[in-house]
Amino acid sequence: MNEEKLLKEVENEPHKFGEIYEAYYKNIFGYVFRRTASYDAAKDITAETFLKAYTGIQKFRWRNISILYWLYRIATNEINKYFNSRRYMPESLNRIHEEYGIDVTDYSNAETERIMIEEDLEKHKEFKKLNELIKKLDTKYQDVISLRFFEQKSIREIAVILDKKEGTIKSLLSRGLDKLKRNITG
After folding, report:
1. pTM, whole model, 2 decimals?
2. I want to staple 157 with a disulfide (CB 3.0 to 4.6 A). Which of 103, 153, 172, 175 is the partner?
3. Quick check: 12 pLDDT over 90?
């Protein structure tokens, strides 16, 4: 996908945003689900991520940085809002549908998808234990550990996603892993 060309097309034809949604939904949903370990929260946060991307697409400037990294940044911010508030209330995707006539939701396979994901998560009880220990860390450590090990992003990619220097990412990753190791053995 030529992202730069697609961005220009989305400006003139908003329904083309669906191509961005289709291309990156699984990446973003997977990231959010692994961070929250909650199917319902992951659906809400992913929907909110794409809503914010859609409504803010005109602010995105092409600088040879993938739209996917921008989406990860939005998702990371939404995840942090979710963990920092008792009741996470995302804006409704109905806003897109009402204002632009675009339906970016496809709930036809939602229950099947939910069952498969929850069964997969249940098979990985160690992941759940590790995820609970990661959640006890400061969010700055959660972000870098999740992006590095769950999303297999490089230090450079994480720096782009989080808009931080590579040295800062390395430091956060090292400190975060040290804290995580102490939590596991302590």
Report:
1. 0.71
2. 153
3. no
